[in-house]
Design goal:
By secondary structure, this protein is an all-alpha fold. Helix 3 packs antiparallel against helix 4. The protein is 68% helix and 3% strand. It contains 16 helices and two strands. A hairpin with a 2-residue loop joins strand 1 and strand 2. Keywords: TPR repeat. InterPro entries: TPR-like_helical_dom_sf, TPR_rpt.
């Protein structure tokens, strides 16, 4: 990771990275995964070679479900030989399994096993993951062969039931793994499960967003009914815009750019991250708040997470809003904040 430039307003102080890493680990234990992620990122801005910060960021990526980012970061760490090799490897192969890359898990673990013994503290888990990945890789091959033979996509009922059970009641890792398995097979018989969960007002809003992305990946054109966060509507997943192309993102992003673009690029980047996070939570619906007030609240929140205190009166003037509008949206955001990464 490159050291941020002087314009990013990061002034390294002795021990800053250590302090931020300790705070990040504490936040991870407390379940505040998003705050932990920010602490590790900031620690690496102070010291790009800090191994504990790198490993903490990897854990935070995995815990917040940012699997592709976690995969890339783990590969970067292993390439640089940063941190404890086996600890990084353990998280890396776990992420690969959740992404459905079972062949890759088997190849890596078999190669490691041929050269080294797995450390005793993690041998059982790695062996179990190896066996599971061998089984899943073999199952995928058999499914492809069966489809080629009969031209169908028959999925045994017990598999469908298991997917629905994991998507409803599983851990975060189990839910994401189920999504990965479904993604590789296409809609077929899995479509009713997805439609049922999208129409369930009590199901996880974030998981509903991920299910819509799944339908979009499958290029499903038929309309599906979505009920979430007291909103409801019918959508064609293939026609849904990416979050970054939504009106809410474009308008909010422009306001943040105008206010922070030349003053504080780091704060702007953090505010953009918070914006994507809340839009992902509401997707495909826009947040039901005034865009200017939302941008001001995200500016305030990003500053607060960086330890910077903002004057609400001055902030309200910058975004052209009334102070009471800021406080109303701020109150709504505080209620949602702990749920934004909950799948």
């Amino acid at each position: 990771m490159k050291r941020e430039g002087a314009n990013n307003n990061i002034v390294p102080f002795p021990g800053s990275a250590d302090r931020l890493v300790n705070e990040g680990l504490k936040k991870l234990k407390e379940g505040d995964k998003q705050k932990a992620l920010q602490q590790f990122i900031e620690a690496l801005m102070h010291n790009p070679d800090h191994e504990d910060a790198s490993y903490g960021l990897l854990l935070a990526y995995a815990d917040t479900g940012q699997l592709l980012e976690g995969k890339k970061w783990a590969e970067k760490m292993m390439q640089k030989a940063s941190g404890d090799y086996f600890e990084v490897l353990q998280v890396y192969v776990s992420i690969l399994a959740q992404l459905g890359e079972y062949d890759k898990v088997v190849t890596i673990l078999e190669a490691v096993q041929a050269e080294d013994q797995f450390p005793a503290r993690m041998a059982e888990q790695l062996f179990e993951l190896l066996e599971l990945s061998r089984h899943m890789a073999k199952t995928e091959i058999e499914q492809v062969d069966n489809k080629q033979e009969d031209g169908g996509n028959d999925i045994p009922p017990y598999v469908l039931e298991e997917w629905e059970n994991r998507l409803r009641n599983g851990t975060s890792e189990q839910k994401l793994a189920a999504l990965g398995e479904m993604r590789s097979l296409g809609p077929g018989e899995a479509m009713p499960i997805v439609e049922k969960l999208l129409a369930d007002q009590h199901y996880s809003p974030l998981m509903q967003s991920f299910l819509l992305f799944l339908l979009k990946d499958w290029n499903v054109n038929k309309n599906v009914w979505v009920e979430k966060l007291d909103r409801k509507g019918e959508f064609s997943p293939a026609a849904l815009r990416p979050i970054e192309e939504s009106t809410s993102y474009i308008k909010s992003s422009q306001l943040l750019e105008e206010t922070l673009g030349h003053k504080d690029p780091v704060l702007l980047k953090n505010a953009h991250h918070l914006l994507r996070e809340i839009l992902l939570y509401f997707y495909p619906f826009p947040p039901s708040v005034q865009i200017e007030s939302l941008a001001a609240v995200l500016h305030f929140e990003a500053a607060d997470q960086s330890g910077e205190k903002m004057d609400v009166s001055s902030l309200s003037i910058q975004y052209g809003i009334a102070e009471n509008s800021f406080f109303q949206v701020r109150e709504e955001y505080e209620k949602l904040k702990s749920k934004l990464s909950d799948i």
